[in-house]
Design goal:
By secondary structure, this protein is α+β, with helices and mostly antiparallel strands. It is built from five helices and four strands; from the N terminus they run H-H-H-H-H-E-E-E-E. It folds into two domains: 75 residues; 148 residues, Nuclear Transport Factor 2, Chain: A (Roll), CATH 3.10.450.240. The chain starts with a helix and ends in a 6-residue tail after the last strand.
C-alpha cells in the first residue's frame, strides 16, 4: 500500500516536472528572441496555469517527503524504546547522579587507544549498570529532576515530552539481570564519547520478563575525570551492525 502511494506521488511529480520543463523552454526561448533584455526575473511570462502546475509539484514533493518521514520515524528516533513503559519509585542517591565512576585503578582490559589516562573501563561499566537501573526507577516515578542530571538538554526535552504522553499511570520496571559492554570509545573535539551495550532481562508491571538490548551513547570532557557523563542518545541494538 505504501509503495503504491509512493508510485502515484512520483508519477504526479514527474508529469508536473515535465510540463514545467516545457514551460521553461518556452520562457527561455522568449528571452533569447528578446535579446536577453528581459528584466522580469524567473516568473516573467508565466501564466496562471503555470502557477497551478508549480503548486501541484510542490504539493507532490511535500506529500512524498512526509510519507517517507512517517515510514522511517521509529527507526530514526535516537531514544525509541522497545516498550512504552520501560526506561526507569526510588530516586538514585545524590552521590551517584550524573557521573559514572572514573577510578584510576588499573583495568584488566586491554588499553583503549582513545581512552584518557584517567579512564578505567571496569569501573566505568559498573557505574553504567548502576545508572541504567537508577534511570529506570526515575522513569517509573516520573522523576524528571533526576533524569535531567543524566541527559543532554536536547535529549532530556525529548524524553520529558515522551514521559508526559505516558502520563501519571503507575509503572514498575524490574531489572532482573543486566550486562554492560563497551563497544566504542572515540574522541570528538575536546570530549570523549562512549557507546555502551546493555543486555539483560527486564520485567514490567509484574508481567513476564523480556530481553532487552540497547546502546547508550554518553559524552564526557576528555581532559579531566571531573564532571558528568551525559547521555546523548539511546538506540535499540541491531546485532547485524556488529
Amino acid at each position: 500500500m505504501f509503495a503504491k502511494k509512493l508510485t502515484v506521488l512520483f508519477t504526479v511529480m514527474v508529469v508536473s516536472l515535465g510540463v514545467l520543463f516545457a514551460a521553461g523552454l518556452q520562457t527561455a526561448e522568449a528571452k533569447r528572441i528578446g535579446g536577453g533584455a528581459n528584466f522580469g526575473g524567473a516568473f516573467d511570462g508565466l501564466k496562471p496555469m503555470d502557477f497551478i502546475i508549480i503548486a501541484l509539484f510542490a504539493l507532490g514533493a511535500f506529500m512524498l517527503i512526509r510519507a517517507l518521514r512517517k515510514s522511517s520515524q521509529s527507526a530514526a528516533s535516537p531514544y525509541a524504546r522497545s516498550t512504552a513503559g520501560a526506561m526507569p519509585d526510588q530516586a538514585p542517591q545524590p552521590s551517584s547522579i550524573g557521573s559514572f565512576s572514573n577510578s584510576s585503578a588499573g583495568s584488566a582490559q586491554a588499553p583503549l587507544p582513545n581512552a584518557p589516562a584517567w579512564f578505567n573501563e571496569d569501573s566505568f561499566l559498573q557505574g553504567a549498570k548502576a545508572h541504567f537501573t537508577n534511570l529506570q526507577r526515575a522513569w517509573d516515578a516520573n522523576d524528571l529532576k533526576t533524569m535531567q542530571e543524566y541527559f543532554t538538554p536536547e535529549l532530556f526535552l525529548e524524553l520529558a515530552r515522551e514521559r508526559a504522553r505516558i502520563g501519571d499511570e503507575n509503572n514498575v520496571t524490574e531489572v532482573q539481570s543486566l550486562n554492560a559492554q563497551l563497544l566504542d570509545l572515540s574522541r570528538e573535539g575536546d570530549s570523549i564519547v562512549a557507546s555502551v551495550l546493555f543486555q539483560g532481562m527486564v520485567r514490567e508491571d509484574y508481567g513476564q520478563p523480556e530481553p532487552i538490548a540497547e546502546i547508550w551513547h554518553v559524552r564526557h570532557t576528555a581532559d579531566s575525570a571531573q564532571g558528568d557523563w551525559l547521555i546523548i542518545g539511546i538506540q535499540q541494538y541491531n546485532q547485524s551492525i556488529h
